[in-house]
Amino acid sequence: MEYRAWFQCIKGCDPTYDLTDIIYECPNCGSLLEVRHDVERLQARSAAAWIKLFDDRWRRTEWPYGSSVWGKKEWICPNVHNDNVVSMYEGGTNLFWAERFAKSVGMDDLWIKQCGNAHTGSFKDLGMTVLVSMVKQMLAEGKKIKGIACASTGDTSAALAAYCAAAGLQAIVFLPKDKVSTSQLIQPIANGALTLSIDTDFDGCMKIVKDVCRENNIYLANSMNSLRVEGQKTLSIELVQQFDWEVPDWVIIPVGNLGNISAIGKGFLMMRELGIISRLPRLVAAQSANANPLYLSYQTGFKCFEPVKAKPTLASAIQIGDPVSIHKAIPVLQEFDGIVEQATEDELANASALADRSGLFNCPHTGVALAVLLKLNERKMFAPHDRIVVISTAHGLKFPDFKVRYHRGELKGVTSRYANPPVELPADYDAVTKVIDERVQAMK
Q1: DSSP state of 150
Q2: What does the alpha-carbon distance between residue 241 and residue 269 come to, in Å, rounded to a whole number?
Q3: Cα–Cα distance between 228 and 235 in angstroms, integer?
Q4: What is the rounded distance in angstroms from the CA atom of residue 175 to the CA atom of residue 153?
Q5: How far is the C-alpha of 54 from the C-alpha of 354, rounded, in Å?
Q6: For residue 377, what is the enclosing H or E element?
Q7: What is d(CA 40, CA 3) in angstroms, rounded to the nearest whole number?
Q8: With CB atoms 3.0 to 4.6 Å apart as the test, which of 109, 190, 207, 225 could cross-link to 387 if both were Cys?
Q9: Residue 140: inside a domain, yes or no?
Q10: Any idea what the CATH number is for the domain that residue 346 is in?
């Protein structure tokens, strides 16, 4: 059966556009576009048949369906020929049962979706496989594209560079100077991307890259390109699949440019529309207090939204004051009875460190979501047996400086309550055993 998808304005303006058209915003009203699917054709297959198909493909070897994104190809991007798919077996990341951490904070059923256990170390792989595959399809159909570009605070550039390298395409990344961790900076460099370190913040990089793509036949890879959202919406589908097609009660997501929460909401809504699920979870958007335009809008009941000048935050990937997907995110939050909460630098750093004590290794952005989780728990927002999922967006290994400085007590504005620095000792048996006796409790 042939399935179809196309671009259309999020406000419903006509006309529609092919997914191979180089277009990101509605020419009529300036709103973002979204990918829409022929739902009637998708509904011709029963919910039970979709579940069986997705389960049969899950992590298998038939190309390209072993990818958790392309295993749901009909729902994501049916327009790409399988020969043009650029995949690194993305998705299928661990859904970690955080039993010990949950008990330590008086909770019952807590899970961490570890999206950082991915090829480039973040959830951005989910959207980038779709976008780069579509560019390869466009080139196969004769489109002239010089390269693919993005503004980034680290993770988007890493994903774009890796997928372009795999496809033999040129990546161009715009990074805010001195605002990206060394581990993130080296990823696009290693993968051969043209890496531009711009003396501005993310919002400044975003403005420049949009102008560059508009005039120079370069394809834009930021989340205002809704092909990215299509890949990222598999996150919510995958969550439900990993819970044997049951819906969690809460999903907490660290947010910056707001493409991710828009995508997660879209995935849940599509599952409901096709009969896979019958209810929606509540969504929580977690922002850094230093970059909190969505939180401020939420305080007004979303009656108004104003960009802010984002201040430096340890959660550098979400240091965004003017999110491009704001007009997608707000309707999603309203549909899901959503909450927006913020976390200070002290709160996010200590929440991350506390969770690390139970076997996790969290990035600072996940720390924002964990801090918000703890705040909502203190307010008794959760019912005793609610199933709660925190989306961990990147791997902690991308942020070694954050971890080291926390345990040295060197983070400005942070009191490191769970610091665990190494103990320096002479090479002396008695000195070693003395410290062990003092510091290590007998295991029960």
Answers
A1: E
A2: 15
A3: 12
A4: 6
A5: 36
A6: helix 364-378
A7: 10
A8: 109
A9: no
A10: 3.40.50.1100
β-bridge partners, 254: 286
For 163-216, the DSSP string reads HHHHHT--EEEEEETT-S-HHHHHHHHHTT-EEEEESS-HHHHHHHHHHHHHHT
- Residue 444: band (very low, low, confident or very high) from pLDDT cuts 50, 70, 90: very low
Could you read off the pLDDT of 35-69 as tens digits, one per residue?
999 999 999 999 999 999 999 999 999 999 999 99
**For residues 319 and 310, is the Cβ–Cβ distance under 8 A?**
yes
Let me know if residue 180 belongs to a domain: no
SS3 161: helix
Examine residue 177 and state whether it is found in any structural domain, yes or no: no
**Which of 97-101, 202-206, 249-253 shows the lowest mean pLDDT across its residues?**
202-206
Burial class (CB in 10 A: 0-12, 13-18, 19+), 105: middle
Looking at the DSSP bridge assignments, the partners of residue 341 are 286
* CB count in 10 Å sphere of residue 348: 31
Distance CA 359, CA 320 (A): 30
Q: pTM value? A: 0.94
Render pLDDT for 352-404 as a digit per residue (tens, 0 to 9).
999 999 999 999 999 999 999 999 999 999 998 999 999 999 999 999 999 99
Give the type of residue at 321: G
Sheet bearing 339-343, strands edge to edge: 95-97, 109-114, 387-392, 250-254, 282-288, 339-343
Q: How many structural domains is the chain composed of? A: 1
Q: How many CA atoms lie within 13 A of 331 on its CB side?
A: 8
Radius of gyration of the chain (CA): 22
8 A C-beta contact, residue 415 and residue 277 = no
Q: Specify whether the CB–CB gap between 381 and 269 falls below 8 A.
A: no
What value, to the nearest 5°, has the Cα angle with vertex 284 and ends 235 and 73?
A: 15
Render pLDDT for 182-239 as a digit per residue (tens, 0 to 9).
888 899 999 999 999 999 998 899 999 999 998 889 999 988 899 999 999 999 999 9
| Cα gap 286→365, rounded to integer Å | 9
- Taking the C-alpha atoms of residue 124 and residue 411, their distance in angstroms, rounded to an integer, is 27
Q: Examine the pLDDT at 1 and tell me if it is beyond 90.
A: no
Domain membership flag for residue 386: yes
Computed over every residue of the chain, the mean pLDDT equals: 95
